[in-house]
Amino acid sequence: MRLFVYPAALFLAFILYCAAPKLAEWLPRAFQKLYALFRRLDERAPRELAFPAFLLTLVMVMTLVPAVSAKSSADLTYEVDKGDSVSFKEREFRDLYRSEYSGDPSYVVFTDYSDLDDYGYLTAVNYYDKTVSLSESDLRNTWFYYDSHDVPKNMDYALDGLTFEANRRADSGTLRLKFEIYDADGKNYVYGTMDIKVGGGSGSSKGDITYTVKPGEEVTFDDDDFEKIYENSSCTGRRLCNDQ
User: DSSP labels for the chain?
Assistant: First the structure.
Protein backbone atom coordinates (compact mmCIF):
# COMPACT_ATOMS: atom_id res chain seq x y z
CA MET A 1 0.00 0.00 0.00
CA ARG A 2 2.90 2.34 0.70
CA LEU A 3 3.77 2.17 -2.99
CA PHE A 4 0.78 4.36 -3.78
CA VAL A 5 1.16 6.92 -1.00
CA TYR A 6 3.32 9.36 -3.01
CA PRO A 7 1.19 9.32 -6.20
CA ALA A 8 -2.09 9.45 -4.30
CA ALA A 9 -1.00 12.46 -2.27
CA LEU A 10 0.26 14.25 -5.38
CA PHE A 11 -2.95 13.55 -7.26
CA LEU A 12 -5.07 14.76 -4.32
CA ALA A 13 -3.12 18.02 -4.14
CA PHE A 14 -3.58 18.56 -7.88
CA ILE A 15 -7.36 17.96 -7.65
CA LEU A 16 -7.63 20.45 -4.80
CA TYR A 17 -5.72 23.02 -6.84
CA CYS A 18 -8.04 22.62 -9.84
CA ALA A 19 -11.24 22.57 -7.78
CA ALA A 20 -10.41 25.56 -5.61
CA PRO A 21 -7.66 27.91 -6.83
CA LYS A 22 -7.77 29.75 -3.52
CA LEU A 23 -6.24 26.71 -1.88
CA ALA A 24 -3.11 27.11 -3.98
CA GLU A 25 -1.57 29.44 -1.42
CA TRP A 26 -2.09 26.77 1.28
CA LEU A 27 -0.47 23.96 -0.69
CA PRO A 28 3.17 24.68 0.27
CA ARG A 29 2.38 24.17 3.95
CA ALA A 30 0.42 21.02 3.13
CA PHE A 31 3.34 19.66 1.10
CA GLN A 32 5.66 20.24 4.05
CA LYS A 33 3.44 18.11 6.25
CA LEU A 34 3.14 15.45 3.55
CA TYR A 35 6.91 15.39 3.15
CA ALA A 36 7.38 14.78 6.88
CA LEU A 37 4.83 11.96 6.68
CA PHE A 38 6.58 10.40 3.69
CA ARG A 39 9.90 10.41 5.51
CA ARG A 40 8.39 8.53 8.43
CA LEU A 41 6.84 6.02 6.04
CA ASP A 42 10.16 5.59 4.25
CA GLU A 43 11.86 4.67 7.48
CA ARG A 44 9.39 1.82 7.93
CA ALA A 45 8.88 0.76 4.30
CA PRO A 46 11.10 -1.90 2.70
CA ARG A 47 13.86 -0.41 0.57
CA GLU A 48 12.77 -2.39 -2.49
CA LEU A 49 9.56 -0.31 -2.61
CA ALA A 50 11.28 3.06 -2.56
CA PHE A 51 12.46 3.11 -6.19
CA PRO A 52 9.14 1.90 -7.73
CA ALA A 53 7.27 4.51 -5.69
CA PHE A 54 9.65 7.19 -6.93
CA LEU A 55 9.16 6.13 -10.55
CA LEU A 56 5.37 6.07 -10.25
CA THR A 57 5.38 9.53 -8.68
CA LEU A 58 7.66 10.82 -11.44
CA VAL A 59 5.31 9.47 -14.13
CA MET A 60 2.33 11.21 -12.53
CA VAL A 61 4.24 14.50 -12.27
CA MET A 62 5.13 14.38 -15.97
CA THR A 63 1.49 13.63 -16.78
CA LEU A 64 0.10 16.48 -14.70
CA VAL A 65 2.58 19.17 -15.80
CA PRO A 66 0.83 19.80 -19.18
CA ALA A 67 -2.51 20.09 -17.41
CA VAL A 68 -1.12 22.62 -14.94
CA SER A 69 0.45 24.59 -17.80
CA ALA A 70 -2.86 24.61 -19.67
CA LYS A 71 -4.64 25.90 -16.58
CA SER A 72 -2.23 28.84 -16.37
CA SER A 73 -3.76 30.33 -19.53
CA ALA A 74 -6.40 32.97 -18.90
CA ASP A 75 -10.15 32.42 -19.31
CA LEU A 76 -10.52 35.78 -21.08
CA THR A 77 -7.89 37.50 -23.20
CA TYR A 78 -7.78 41.01 -24.66
CA GLU A 79 -5.16 42.96 -26.58
CA VAL A 80 -4.64 46.70 -26.60
CA ASP A 81 -2.00 49.18 -27.74
CA LYS A 82 -0.42 51.73 -25.43
CA GLY A 83 -2.58 54.81 -25.20
CA ASP A 84 -5.60 52.89 -26.50
CA SER A 85 -8.57 51.16 -24.89
CA VAL A 86 -10.45 47.86 -25.06
CA SER A 87 -13.95 47.13 -23.79
CA PHE A 88 -14.79 43.89 -22.03
CA LYS A 89 -17.63 41.85 -23.50
CA GLU A 90 -20.55 40.99 -21.23
CA ARG A 91 -21.34 37.81 -23.12
CA GLU A 92 -17.88 36.38 -22.37
CA PHE A 93 -18.51 36.68 -18.63
CA ARG A 94 -21.97 35.20 -19.15
CA ASP A 95 -20.63 32.27 -21.16
CA LEU A 96 -18.00 31.58 -18.53
CA TYR A 97 -20.68 31.60 -15.83
CA ARG A 98 -22.93 29.31 -17.86
CA SER A 99 -20.11 26.81 -18.20
CA GLU A 100 -20.96 25.80 -14.62
CA TYR A 101 -24.41 27.21 -13.87
CA SER A 102 -27.60 27.92 -15.78
CA GLY A 103 -29.17 31.32 -16.33
CA ASP A 104 -27.51 34.71 -16.29
CA PRO A 105 -24.99 35.94 -13.72
CA SER A 106 -25.75 38.82 -11.39
CA TYR A 107 -22.47 40.63 -10.88
CA VAL A 108 -18.69 40.41 -11.23
CA VAL A 109 -16.11 41.17 -8.55
CA PHE A 110 -12.40 41.60 -9.26
CA THR A 111 -10.31 39.88 -6.60
CA ASP A 112 -6.75 40.51 -7.82
CA TYR A 113 -5.78 43.69 -9.66
CA SER A 114 -2.45 44.52 -8.04
CA ASP A 115 -0.73 45.54 -11.32
CA LEU A 116 -3.57 47.60 -12.77
CA ASP A 117 -2.06 51.01 -11.98
CA ASP A 118 1.19 50.01 -13.70
CA TYR A 119 -0.56 49.48 -17.02
CA GLY A 120 -3.56 51.83 -16.93
CA TYR A 121 -7.02 52.08 -15.40
CA LEU A 122 -10.63 50.99 -15.90
CA THR A 123 -13.64 53.06 -16.83
CA ALA A 124 -17.22 52.05 -16.03
CA VAL A 125 -20.73 53.49 -16.17
CA ASN A 126 -22.55 54.24 -12.90
CA TYR A 127 -26.23 54.55 -12.00
CA TYR A 128 -26.42 58.04 -13.51
CA ASP A 129 -25.04 56.81 -16.84
CA LYS A 130 -21.80 58.67 -16.17
CA THR A 131 -18.44 57.14 -17.09
CA VAL A 132 -16.06 57.01 -14.12
CA SER A 133 -12.33 56.21 -14.03
CA LEU A 134 -11.30 53.44 -11.63
CA SER A 135 -7.84 52.68 -10.22
CA GLU A 136 -6.79 49.80 -7.99
CA SER A 137 -8.10 51.44 -4.83
CA ASP A 138 -11.54 51.93 -6.42
CA LEU A 139 -12.02 48.21 -7.07
CA ARG A 140 -12.16 47.13 -3.42
CA ASN A 141 -15.64 45.77 -2.64
CA THR A 142 -16.90 47.05 -5.99
CA TRP A 143 -19.48 45.11 -8.01
CA PHE A 144 -20.10 45.25 -11.74
CA TYR A 145 -23.68 44.26 -12.53
CA TYR A 146 -24.57 42.15 -15.53
CA ASP A 147 -27.94 43.92 -15.77
CA SER A 148 -27.32 47.67 -15.75
CA HIS A 149 -30.77 48.21 -14.21
CA ASP A 150 -29.52 46.54 -11.01
CA VAL A 151 -26.81 49.14 -10.40
CA PRO A 152 -27.62 50.97 -7.11
CA LYS A 153 -27.26 54.70 -6.59
CA ASN A 154 -23.93 56.14 -5.47
CA MET A 155 -22.10 52.82 -5.66
CA ASP A 156 -21.02 50.04 -8.03
CA TYR A 157 -21.20 50.02 -11.82
CA ALA A 158 -22.55 48.26 -14.90
CA LEU A 159 -20.56 45.44 -16.48
CA ASP A 160 -21.66 46.67 -19.89
CA GLY A 161 -19.21 49.34 -20.99
CA LEU A 162 -16.44 48.28 -18.61
CA THR A 163 -13.25 49.32 -20.40
CA PHE A 164 -9.51 49.16 -19.85
CA GLU A 165 -7.52 52.28 -20.76
CA ALA A 166 -3.81 51.63 -21.35
CA ASN A 167 -1.32 54.30 -20.34
CA ARG A 168 0.72 55.76 -23.19
CA ARG A 169 3.93 55.19 -21.23
CA ALA A 170 3.06 51.76 -19.91
CA ASP A 171 5.57 48.97 -20.39
CA SER A 172 4.67 46.29 -22.89
CA GLY A 173 3.51 43.21 -21.07
CA THR A 174 0.51 41.26 -19.82
CA LEU A 175 -1.79 42.48 -17.08
CA ARG A 176 -3.55 39.62 -15.30
CA LEU A 177 -6.79 40.27 -13.45
CA LYS A 178 -8.64 37.70 -11.36
CA PHE A 179 -12.39 37.85 -10.85
CA GLU A 180 -15.44 35.97 -9.59
CA ILE A 181 -18.85 35.88 -11.31
CA TYR A 182 -21.74 35.53 -8.84
CA ASP A 183 -25.40 34.64 -8.99
CA ALA A 184 -28.09 36.85 -7.46
CA ASP A 185 -27.85 35.11 -4.06
CA GLY A 186 -24.09 35.49 -3.89
CA LYS A 187 -23.67 31.79 -3.10
CA ASN A 188 -22.68 30.27 -6.42
CA TYR A 189 -19.79 31.77 -8.31
CA VAL A 190 -17.31 31.00 -11.06
CA TYR A 191 -13.64 31.90 -10.65
CA GLY A 192 -11.85 33.32 -13.68
CA THR A 193 -8.73 35.08 -14.90
CA MET A 194 -8.27 37.74 -17.55
CA ASP A 195 -5.10 38.62 -19.45
CA ILE A 196 -4.80 42.06 -21.05
CA LYS A 197 -1.84 42.15 -23.40
CA VAL A 198 -0.49 45.68 -23.65
CA GLY A 199 1.96 46.30 -26.46
CA GLY A 200 3.16 48.24 -29.44
CA GLY A 201 1.61 51.59 -29.95
CA SER A 202 0.63 53.57 -32.98
CA GLY A 203 2.82 51.34 -35.16
CA SER A 204 0.56 48.32 -34.87
CA SER A 205 -2.63 47.96 -36.85
CA LYS A 206 -6.05 47.60 -35.28
CA GLY A 207 -9.40 46.70 -36.78
CA ASP A 208 -12.77 48.26 -36.01
CA ILE A 209 -13.89 44.94 -34.50
CA THR A 210 -11.49 42.72 -32.61
CA TYR A 211 -11.97 39.16 -31.39
CA THR A 212 -9.53 36.92 -29.56
CA VAL A 213 -9.68 33.13 -29.75
CA LYS A 214 -7.50 30.43 -28.24
CA PRO A 215 -5.90 27.75 -30.45
CA GLY A 216 -8.32 24.92 -31.13
CA GLU A 217 -11.36 26.96 -30.06
CA GLU A 218 -13.89 29.08 -31.95
CA VAL A 219 -15.37 32.55 -31.63
CA THR A 220 -18.82 33.75 -32.71
CA PHE A 221 -19.18 37.17 -34.31
CA ASP A 222 -21.60 39.46 -32.49
CA ASP A 223 -24.11 41.30 -34.70
CA ASP A 224 -24.20 44.13 -32.15
CA ASP A 225 -20.57 44.93 -32.96
CA PHE A 226 -21.40 45.35 -36.65
CA GLU A 227 -24.50 47.37 -35.80
CA LYS A 228 -22.44 49.82 -33.75
CA ILE A 229 -20.00 50.31 -36.64
CA TYR A 230 -22.91 51.00 -38.98
CA GLU A 231 -24.58 53.45 -36.58
CA ASN A 232 -21.34 55.41 -36.24
CA SER A 233 -20.95 55.73 -40.01
CA SER A 234 -22.74 57.92 -42.53
CA CYS A 235 -24.01 54.96 -44.56
CA THR A 236 -27.73 54.64 -45.29
CA GLY A 237 -29.70 51.62 -46.44
CA ARG A 238 -27.61 48.98 -48.17
CA ARG A 239 -25.17 51.43 -49.70
CA LEU A 240 -21.53 50.66 -48.99
CA CYS A 241 -19.29 53.49 -47.89
CA ASN A 242 -15.97 52.74 -49.47
CA ASP A 243 -14.54 56.09 -48.46
CA GLN A 244 -14.98 55.41 -44.77
Answer: -GGGHHHHHHHHHHHHHHH-GGGGGGHHHHHHHHHHHHHHHHHHS-GGGHHHHHHHHHHHHHHHHHHHHHHTS-SEEEEEETT-EEEPPHHHHHHHHHTTSSS---EEEEEE-TTHHHHEEEEEE-TTS-EEEE-GGGGTT-EEESSGGGPPTTS-EESTT-EEEE-TTPPSEEEEEEEEEE-TTSS-EEEEEEEEEEE--TTS---SS-----TT---PPPHHHHHHHHHTS---TT---TT-
